[in-house]
Amino acid sequence: MPQQSPTPATDSGPAPGITITDLVKTFETPDGVVTAVDNVSLHVPEGSFFTIVGPSGCGKTTIIRMLAGLEDPTSGQMDIRKSSDDGPVTNSMVFQGDSLFPWMTVWDNAAYGLHMRHAPKSEIRDQVGHYLDKTGLTRFAKAYPHQLSGGMRQRVSIARAFANDPDVFYMDEPFSALDEQNKTILQEELLRTWEESRKTVIFITHSVDEAVTLGDQVMIMTGRPGRVKQLVDVPFDRPRSVLELRRQPEYGEMIYDIWGSLKDEVGGAAA
Ligand SMILES: Nc1ncnc2c1ncn2[C@@H]1O[C@H](COP(=O)(O)OP(=O)(O)OP(=O)(O)O)[C@@H](O)[C@H]1O
User: Any idea where the ABC transporter domain is (predicted)?
Assistant: First the structure.
């Protein structure tokens, strides 16, 4: 199974993308100190799709929260940079379940980030129109979240994230609440949408299939305290078709290998 070294070194500092060095996060709890993330180092090249799998409670969400600036690391460094020189690195987040405003229409939800940063009306119209179209929601632009299925609501979250045109996407199990068919359809749509822009994505999932289907690299984490167990390069060509990919024998082998690596960790976490 191909693997990638976590070392991001270049002579002039970290390469564009996300570079994490010796990252540690502990939490004080009534039962003592919990080490959620333990000495994680990795480099996610700019424009790549990086997926993280690991047992429940191994610190996946904590890593994303630190990268997004919602949580301070206990120690270690994070360097997030881009190759273009057009201002600070921006991000959008997509979570499990949806985070839509129930009193806003689909259009207004998708336009929310752009409104918040006072984007020109023409940009809002173009961006929101484009991503509602990409996610098959144009007909539902005037609907409210309660009138949509779970899959459609999650599509709105994705349209909103992409309409915002950030440099980096943080996605935390965005499809985990969906049934298998909806999940596959949304994976296809996410790939199609992402392939247009090729922005950096960090995507957390419990599904090894999903991690391999979407990712350029998969990080396998140990059970808590969460460390990097293995970094696996996913060699399949892009653009990818989810169903075509799943027919390939190499795909099955890769899933099998990753499961082999993850199995002990999941068993350990459950014990
Ligand atoms: N604010 C907090 N205070 C105390 N402990 C926390 C806090 N946030 C996270 N933890 C603990 O840190 C560990 C890692 O949590 P985290 O949510 O990052 O794991 P995860 O891998 O995303 O889990 P899951 O896959 O179940 O979502 C867990 O043991 C969790 O209980």
Answer: 18-248
| Residue to mutate (ligand 1; options 25, 52, 56, 62; most atoms within 8 A of CB) | 62
pLDDT of residue 98: 66
Domains and CATH numbers, the chain: 1-90+199-271 (3.40.50.300)
CA 269 to CA 240: how far, in whole Å? 33
123: its two tokens: 């940009």
Residue 4 has, within 13 A of its CA and on its CB side, a CA count of 19
pLDDT given at position 93: 92
Phi/psi for 249 (5° steps) reads -60, -35
Q: How far apart are CA 207 and CA 83, in angstroms?
A: 31
Q: Of all atoms in ligand 1, which is nearest to the CA of residue 71?
A: 1
**How far is 62 from 70, CA to CA, in rounded Å?**
9
Give the CB-side neighbour count of residue 66, counting CA atoms within 13 A: 25
Q: What residues of the chain score a pLDDT lower than 50? A: 1-9, 270-271
What is the Å distance from ligand 1's center to 87 Cα? 32
CA nearest 209: which of 249, 255, 261?
Answer: 255
| 4 touches 11 (CB < 8 A) | no
- 140-175 exposure pattern, b = at least 16 Cβ within 10 A, e = fewer: bbeebbeebeebbbbbbbbbbbbbbbbbbbbbbbbb
| Cα of 136 from ligand 1 centre, angstroms | 34
